[in-house]
Structure formats: structure tokens, C-alpha cells
């Protein structure tokens, strides 16, 4: 892991084992529109504590409401584009958001944009070992400001990708800040974008093209990066 968090884990007031991820997917039993092709997963990142541990949200005299629900640390969202459906993957992505459409457009052959399924571009096939399967897109990763700098986002992303990428040939993302705090300051935005890219590289992503990064699901690199982050928080 070449990326070094700017804040040491020793400053965290809780253990890495207290961080819990909760996954949520909702879909109709009978698909309509692009529901058969496009899945949207939301992942909550929360801190939990033992029954006998103190909680920063309440005093000892209070019953802790966060014991069951956890204290929110951040959240993530993933979009899975499924292959072998009756929908053109590009059209399904375009129906979701401009960001998702851009990722799919960069990874697929524009000549087949209105043909059902995923049709990878030559550039994509050159960098992905086995270009057969679905595409998982890491759309957003948000960590609450007070918990940034420890590497929690990288740890959570690696763990979530491990759970959600089964059947996918690649995971894609476009590193960018989630907060709208830069206004017209392009220099500050680019600087933040570069830092975020380093974080995702520590998870296993590599630059692809036009700001898109890819992670090859067939390679061992993801698991190595994941274990490195696990060991980092175990310390």
C-alpha cells in the first residue's frame, strides 16, 4: 500500500472491528424499465460498540439507541450493470445518471450502444484479464468529515467490493470529491481528486482512460490490498 493515511489509526476512539457495513437493495418482483439490467446498492458504514462499552452519543444513565442501529460514519453506493439481459447496457446506464453513463460508455463499444447486453471496447479487453461478466461501478463513497483521513473509506470500499463483485469481470469508478465545497476553484478540486485517486489505487484500482479507473476482478491484487487495509486497522 503506497498510500499513507494522514491520520494514524491510534487516534481513532474505537477499533476497526467496531466498523460494520450494512447492505440494501430494493427491486420489484416483476422488473420494469431497466430493473433487470441495473441494480443500485446502498451501503451504510456505522460504528457499533459492545453492550458494556461507553457510547459518545449518550450518558450511562441513558438507554443507548445506537447499540442496535450503530453510529453513522459514512455511506457508499454501487451500481451493477448486468450482462445478458434484453436491455442495452448503455441505455440502462443513461437512465440512471450521467456519471454511470460515462463509465459504461468508456468501457463499451459505441457501435453496440443500442444492442442488448454489455459489449466491451478493445481498450477494456486489453486491460481486463477475463472480460466476461457484469460490471460493478463504485458510484459514491462518503465519509463524514470528522472520520476522514484514517483510511476508513478505503477499508469499507475493499470489503464492499469483495461482497458485491461476484460474477463481475471488473469494478469501475471515477475518483472525485463527494462534497460540493470547491465552487469554481478548479485547482483545489483537481488536488482533491488526485488525493482520492491515490486512495482508490491502494484498494486495487488502476487508471484506465478519461478519468475512469478499473479494478480487475480476476486478479489477486484486490485481495492483497484488502488484507493490507485489514492489517492496518488491526494494528
Task: Give a quick rundown of the structure.
By secondary structure, the protein is of the alpha+beta class. It has 7 helices and 7 strands.
What would your notes on this structure say?
Strand 4 (134-143), helix 5 and strand 5 (168-173) form a beta-alpha-beta unit. Strands 1-2-3-4-5-7-6 form a seven-stranded mixed beta sheet. Helix content is 30%, strand content 22%. By secondary structure, it is of the alpha+beta class. Helix 2 packs antiparallel against helix 3 and helix 5 crosses helix 7 (221-234). The protein has seven helices and seven strands. The chain is globular, with a radius of gyration of 19 Å. The two termini are 15 Å apart. The chain has one domain (9-234): Aminopeptidase (3-Layer(aba) Sandwich).
Write the layout of secondary structure elements.
Blueprint: E1 19-24, E2 38-47, H1 66-69, E3 71-81, H2 89-96, H3 98-107, H4 122-127, E4 134-143, H5 152-164, E5 168-173, H6 186-201, E6 206-209, E7 212-216, H7 221-234
Parallel strand pairs: 4-5
Antiparallel strand pairs: 1-2, 2-3, 3-4, 5-7, 6-7
Amino acid at each position: 500500500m503506497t498510500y499513507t493515511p494522514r491520520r494514524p489509526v491510534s487516534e481513532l476512539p474505537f477499533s476497526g472491528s467496531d466498523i460494520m457495513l450494512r447492505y440494501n437493495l430494493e427491486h420489484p418482483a416483476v422488473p420494469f424499465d431497466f430493473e433487470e439490467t441495473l441494480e443500485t446498492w446502498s451501503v451504510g458504514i456505522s460504528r457499533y460498540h459492545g453492550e458494556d462499552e461507553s457510547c459518545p452519543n449518550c450518558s450511562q444513565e441513558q438507554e443507548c439507541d445506537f447499540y442496535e442501529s450503530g453510529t453513522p460514519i459514512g455511506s457508499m453506493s454501487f451500481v451493477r450493470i448486468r450482462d445478458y439481459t434484453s436491455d442495452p447496457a448503455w441505455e440502462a446506464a443513461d437512465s440512471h445518471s450521467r456519471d454511470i453513463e460515462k463509465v459504461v460508455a468508456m468501457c463499451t463499444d459505441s457501435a453496440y450502444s443500442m444492442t442488448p447486453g454489455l459489449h466491451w471496447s478493445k481498450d477494456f479487453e486489453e486491460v481486463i484479464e477475463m472480460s466476461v461478466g457484469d460490471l460493478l461501478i463504485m458510484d459514491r463513497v462518503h465519509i463524514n468529515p470528522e472520520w476522514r483521513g484514517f483510511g476508513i473509506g478505503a477499508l469499507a470500499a475493499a470489503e464492499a467490493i469483495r461482497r458485491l463483485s461476484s460474477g463481475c469481470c471488473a469494478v469501475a469508478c471515477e475518483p472525485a470529491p463527494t462534497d460540493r465545497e470547491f465552487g469554481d476553484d478548479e485547482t483545489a478540486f483537481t488536488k482533491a481528486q488526485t488525493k482520492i485517486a491515490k486512495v482508490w489505487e491502494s484498494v486495487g484500482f488502476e487508471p484506465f482512460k478519461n478519468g475512469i479507473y478499473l479494478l480487475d476482478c480476476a486478479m489477486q491484487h484486490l485481495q492483497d490490498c484488502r488484507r493490507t487495509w485489514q492489517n492496518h486497522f488491526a494494528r
